Structure to design on (282 residues):
């Protein structure tokens, strides 16, 4: 019995040390006082010659870099309140969870894009393709039109209204009628040499997945980029910034600018390829 107790104590000590080492391993990249994407990670630890290009206030890139984050010690939670046991994150966006029943990875990306355009009052650029190809425009929705599912068209049934409540109802309709495949079809292919924040890595199909690039660090000496990636997942969970297990659990995924389309970008829960890089067309 005494030997069992000693063995248990030893195991607990090792678990504590391992947990501490894990925390210490990732903490060197994190600024715990940084509560936005751009402020959370110490880019001086990304390696020599890496830098962030200036972003203009009002752009999608600026919006993503300034997304709010939960405290550095916070762990990803599912919609039911449970903590995610698979530790893949280095940060969690301080945004509500998209409810169950929506297409989680693509739904989160649609939500980020729509929120940016709505907050910027770029209403005419808010439109998403339904599964059946119907283009659902927020400008039409705000003008009082609603989708007539019977004939795949619009019918006028409400007053002009650009309020957030009306926008939320529009977004709810979009999320219920889009998939990762419909999102991919309205995006344009991008080469790795042109990559920028707001671009998306997306794979379609029944078991498809997508992540959005929140930040890009550039290196003209080594001819490479480092990407900060965020994902939603199924079942519904908070949107998380991914750690790179192949690079000391850093927040950066390094890609050579000389990569071909078949070059892999391995994330903790999915493997993408450079050919999966896409961008919103508008």
């Amino acid at each position: 019995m005494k030997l069992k107790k000693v063995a248990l104590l030893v195991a607990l000590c090792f678990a504590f040390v391992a947990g501490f080492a894990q925390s210490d391993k990732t903490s060197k990249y994190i600024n715990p006082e940084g509560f936005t994407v751009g402020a959370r990670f110490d880019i001086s630890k990304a390696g020599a010659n890496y830098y962030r290009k200036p972003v203009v206030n009002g752009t999608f890139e600026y919006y993503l870099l300034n997304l709010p984050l939960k405290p550095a010690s916070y762990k990803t939670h599912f919609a039911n309140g449970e903590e995610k046991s698979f530790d893949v994150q280095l940060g969690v966006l301080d945004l509500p969870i998209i409810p169950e029943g929506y297409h989680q990875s693509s739904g989160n990306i649609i939500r980020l894009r729509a929120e940016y355009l709505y907050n910027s009052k770029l209403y005419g650029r808010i439109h998403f393709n339904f599964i059946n190809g119907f283009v659902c425009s927020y400008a039409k929705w705000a003008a009082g039109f609603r989708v007539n599912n019977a004939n795949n068209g619009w019918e006028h049934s409400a007053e002009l209204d650009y309020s957030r409540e009306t926008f939320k109802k529009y977004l709810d309709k979009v999320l219920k009628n889009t998939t990762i495949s419909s999102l991919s079809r309205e995006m344009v292919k991008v080469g790795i040499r042109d990559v920028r924040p707001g671009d998306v890595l997306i794979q379609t199909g029944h078991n498809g997945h997508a992540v959005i690039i929140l930040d890009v660090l550039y290196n003209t000496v080594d001819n490479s980029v480092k990407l900060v990636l965020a994902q939603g997942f199924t079942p519904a969970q908070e949107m998380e910034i991914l750690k790179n297990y192949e690079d000391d659990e850093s927040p950066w995924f390094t890609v050579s600018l000389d990569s071909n389309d078949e070059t892999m970008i391995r994330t903790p829960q999915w493997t993408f390829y450079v050919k999966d890089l896409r961008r919103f067309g508008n």
User: Anything to note?
Assistant: Confidence is low (pLDDT under 50) at residues 1-22. Residues 2-27 form the longest helix (26 residues). Helices lie at 2-27, 37-40, 60-65, 104-119, 138-142, 164-176, 180-185. The CA atoms of residues 4 and 10 lie 10 Å apart.
